[in-house]
């Protein structure tokens, strides 16, 4: 099958962040850069903010945890777009999360059926399951390492997305806001088990990884909908 995308990815999209940032600066438009994965994106976004441009950016857990060196040949669970990058890129993303250049952590949740991902590399679709691994990966790689505080984690996953999208009824625990809450036990350690995902997709490179931080309960609209990993009636 087709080999993995190289860490530098496709040549054309590399020009998109600089071009789009310049257009945002010229027009005064607001710009959000999705799935930032390179040192270049970090540098350009940081520079644009210093110049007063209305720009923001996000990073996905797989890009701040894995690099191209972690890929297993032939394993399509490592096929994603943007592709996994170099350790230098990963370290730049961590710096950007720590210094506030990247305001948002997103999942890029892309579940696929097993038969889709079991195709040859050149035919298998891009993407991995992101929702059910986002919390433990963020706790393990960012909070437990001191890169983010628990409050900063909440801001990047909840508060900042609500602010950037102008969702005035969400993003905080203030009175009158939507009662959508995720309760996390940051100290519980366990191994990620793709077979226990509620998503129909099992396509993840993190299966079997030992992590910290389990979702203890999920409250939606003031109602407990999930507790201790089980859906509530």
User: What letter string, H or E per element, gives the SSE order?
Assistant: HEHEHHEHHHEEEE
* CATH homologous superfamily identity of the domain at 13-173: Metal-dependent hydrolases
Q: Which CATH class of the domain at 13-173 is shown?
A: Alpha Beta
| Rg, alpha carbons | 18 Å
Question: What's the CATH architecture name of the domain at 13-173?
Answer: Alpha-Beta Barrel
The strand line-up of the biggest sheet is 4-5-6-7
The structural class is alpha/beta
Number of strands: 7
Average predicted confidence as pLDDT = 92
Could you give a short account of the major beta sheet? 4 strands, antiparallel
Distance between the termini: 45 Å
CATH topology of the domain at 13-173: TIM Barrel
**Percent of residues in helices:** 25-40%
Share in β-strands: 15-25%
- Unreliable sequence segments: 10-14
What would the principal axes of the Cα set say about the shape? globular
Number of helices: 7
Oligomer: single chain
Q: In a few lines, what is going on in this structure?
A:
This protein has seven helices and seven strands; from the N terminus they run αβαβααβαααββββ. With 233 residues, the chain is α/β, with parallel strands linked by helices.
How would you describe this structure in keywords?
4-stranded antiparallel sheet, 233 residues, 7 helices, alpha/beta
What does this structure look like?
The chain has a domain at 13-173: Metal-dependent hydrolases (TIM Barrel, Alpha-Beta Barrel), CATH 3.20.20.140. Helix content is 32%, strand content 17%. It has 7 helices and 7 strands; from the N terminus they run H-E-H-E-H-H-E-H-H-H-E-E-E-E. Helix 2 links the parallel strand 1 and strand 2. Helix 1 runs parallel beside helix 2 and helix 2 (39-50) packs parallel to helix 4. The longest helix has 15 residues, at 150-164. The protein is globular. 33% of the residues are buried. Mean pLDDT is 92; it is low at 10-14.
């Amino acid at each position: 099958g087709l080999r993995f995308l190289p860490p530098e990815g496709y040549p054309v999209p590399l020009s998109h962040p600089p071009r789009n940032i310049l257009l945002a600066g010229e027009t005064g438009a607001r710009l959000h850069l999705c799935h930032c994965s390179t040192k270049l994106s970090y540098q350009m976004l940081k520079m644009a903010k210093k110049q007063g441009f209305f720009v923001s950016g996000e990073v996905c857990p797989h890009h701040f945890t894995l690099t191209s060196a972690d890929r297993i040949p032939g394993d399509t669970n490592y096929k994603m777009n943007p592709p996994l990058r170099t350790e230098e890129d990963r370290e730049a993303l961590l710096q950007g999360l720590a210094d506030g250049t990247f305001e948002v952590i997103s999942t890029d949740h892309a579940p696929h059926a097993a038969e889709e991902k079991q195709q040859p590399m050149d035919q298998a679709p891009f993407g991995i399951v992101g929702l059910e691994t986002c919390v433990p990966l963020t706790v393990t790689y960012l909070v437990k390492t001191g890169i983010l505080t628990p409050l900063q984690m909440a801001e990047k996953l909840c508060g900042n997305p609500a602010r950037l999208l102008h969702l005035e009824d969400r993003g905080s625990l203030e009175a009158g806001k939507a009662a959508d809450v995720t309760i996390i036990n940051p100290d519980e350690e366990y191994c990620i088990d793709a077979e226990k995902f509620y998503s129909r997709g099992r396509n993840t490179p993190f299966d079997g990884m030992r992590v910290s931080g389990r979702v203890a309960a999920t409250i939606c609209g003031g109602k407990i909908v999930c507790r201790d990993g089980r859906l509530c009636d």
